[in-house]
Amino acid sequence: MARVRIDQAAINRFGSLPQVERDMDRRAQRVATTARSDAPVRTGEYRASIRVEDLGGGARRIIAEADHAIFVEEDTRPHTIRPRFRRALYWAGADHPVAVVHHPGTRGQHVMARALNAAYGLTHA
After folding, report:
1. What's the whole-model pTM score?
2. Alpha-carbon distance 53 to 112, whole Å?
3. Looking at the structure, do residues 53 and 98 belong to the same domain, yes or no?
4. Which domain holds residue 101?
5. Is the Cβ–Cβ distance between 6 and 59 less than 8 Å?
6. Which DSSP helix (H) or strand (E) runs through 51?
7. Within this chain, do residues 33 and 45 fall inside the same structural domain, yes or no?
8. Whether 100 and 83 share a structural domain
């Protein structure tokens, strides 16, 4: 998780709190907008869940609230998927129902870290 911390003493040195608040809003919105534009879209739920949260005192948090956001952001290990309520799994496009799926895992897309870095001209590996 990428974090940016702002020292309250530094805020006081750089200007009035309303100016700092406006600047932090602008910067946070820039990161959120970048994240939304870079987010993968299958259903649009992940992209739509990205928002800025005001924590007060000049602090902002950019979050993705979709239930599957953690799986988009972070790597998942290989795992087995079994049916919970039926005897087999089936999805649109599958040739036939299957009893078990051996999922190879996924690579995290690190959308938030890339957005934070892109908003400030940095690169992310």
Report:
1. 0.68
2. 14
3. no
4. 75-107
5. yes
6. strand 50-56
7. yes
8. yes
